[in-house]
Amino acid sequence: MIVRQFGKCEQSNRRIVTKNWESTRMLLKNDGMGFSFHITTIYPGTSTHMWYQNHLESVYCIEGTGRIEEVASGKSHDIEPGTLYALNEHDEHVLHAETRLVLACVFNPPLLGTEVHNEDGVYPLEAQEITD
Ligand code: 9YT
Predict the structure, then answer these.
(1) What do you get for the CA distance between the two ends of the chain, in Å?
(2) Which of 16, 24, 103 gets mutated to test ligand 1 (max ligand atoms within 8 A of its CB)?
(3) CB of 61 within 8 A of CB of 100?
(4) How remote is the CA of residue 114 from the centroid of ligand 1, in Å?
(5) What is the model's pLDDT at position 130?
(6) Distance from the alpha carbon of residue 23 to the mean position of ligand 1, in angstroms
(7) Measured between alpha carbons, how far is 81 from 10 in angstroms, rounded to an integer?
(8) Bridge partner residues of 68 (DSSP)
(9) From the CB of 51, is ligand 1 less than 6 Å away?
(10) Could you tell me the domains of the chain?
């Protein structure tokens, strides 16, 4: 069994910080679960373009309000606590954070550890592994 505390993970190299967001990756590929699990904070007032061509992601909003925009159709969906969205078609999207958003995110295949978006909003399949 794996038991971890968010507070401890946040103080470790599991916390990845970028311009628009930070993410504490509590489960990774080397945990052998077949998915990774992250608590992500999106900074207020930001818009982030993402396109997970190599991954499927589902996102559950714990705190905050914002909007998720589908690039292909131009459709937008409001996000508030309790909202889940799943990028089941590798959907290209833009996440607009009105306030600070706290999100629980699951990736399949699991992230290795240090992935950040490239210029197209993609995570590569190769990245440096994080080990405790
Ligand atoms: C919602 C989203 O995908 N934000 C970017 C960070 C990502 N959740 C991650 O790497 O943990």
Answers:
(1) 15
(2) 103
(3) no
(4) 12
(5) 84
(6) 7
(7) 22
(8) 77, 95
(9) no
(10) 6-108 (2.60.120.10)
CA of 1 to the centre of ligand 1 (A): 25
Tell me which DSSP letter residue 8 carries. Answer: H
What letters, b where the CB count within 10 A reaches 16 and e where it falls short, cover 52-91?
Answer: beebbbbbbbeebbbebbbeeeeeeeebeeebebebeeeb
- Judged against a pLDDT cut of 80, whether residue 132 lies above it is answered with no
Can you tell me the distance from the alpha carbon of 8 to that of 19, in angstroms, rounded to the nearest whole number? 22
61 lines ligand 1 (CB under 6 A): no
pLDDT in tens, 61-93: 999 999 999 999 999 999 999 999 999 999 999
Q: Where are the alpha helices (DSSP H) in the chain?
A: 6-10
* Rounded Cα–Cα distance for residues 93 and 75 (Å): 10
Amino acid letter, residue 11? Q
Kindly state the DSSP code that residue 10 receives in the 8-state scheme.
Answer: H
CA quadruple 68, 71, 72, 76: dihedral, nearest 10: 30
**Does the Cβ of 50 fall within 6 Å of ligand 1?**
yes
